[in-house]
Structures are given as structure tokens and as C-alpha cells.
Amino acid sequence: LTMKTTENYEQLLARFTKRIEQIKAGEQSDKTVEQLHYLRGCKETIEYLMTGQLPNDGNHDGMKHHRPRHGNLDALD
Q: What secondary structure, in 3-state letters, does the chain show?
């Protein structure tokens, strides 16, 4: 998923949240469960980029919250 030039983090977060709610409201299948996992990951990434807060999912215990060092994810390549 690529960010449109007119989208900021808040708009992306709203889009992912809206899509998650749409999928949750429908009938669940293996495909929709997979889509939900993907979208939740996208949403957590945007939240991290916005705030530096790591997800509270049990996988990040002991890590301090921090500001992301890279504003441009392409710099990580």
C-alpha cells in the first residue's frame, strides 16, 4: 500500500480504521481474517510513525517508547 501524495498519517489511520470496521461487520472467512491482520499491522505502523508508541500486543515488552529515527521508510533499505 502506498501513501497517496494527498494523504497524511491521520487520513491513513482513518482509512485503515474504517476498512477494519467494514470487514469486522461482515461475515468472517480465512481471507477476511488475513485482511484484518494485515490492516491492523498497517494501522499499528501508522500509529508508531505518528507517536513513537509501540503496539501493546505483548511482543514489545521491555522496549521503551521512542520517536522513530527515520521519517522516510525508504531510508531503511
A: CCCCCCCCHHHHHHHHHHHHHHHHHCCCCHHHHHHHHHHHHHHHHHHHHHHCCCCCCCCCCCCCCCCCCCCCHHHHC
Q: Give the model confidence (pLDDT) of 12-49 as tens digits.
A: 999 999 999 999 999 989 999 999 999 999 998 898 88
Q: How far is CA 47 from the centre of its chain?
A: 6
Give the up-direction half-sphere exposure of residue 25: CA atoms within 13 A in the CB hemisphere.
Answer: 6
Query: Is the pTM higher than 0.90?
Result: no
Angle at 44 between CA 23 and CA 56, to 5 degrees: 110
- At residue 33, what is the residue type? V
CB atoms within 10 A of CB 16: 21
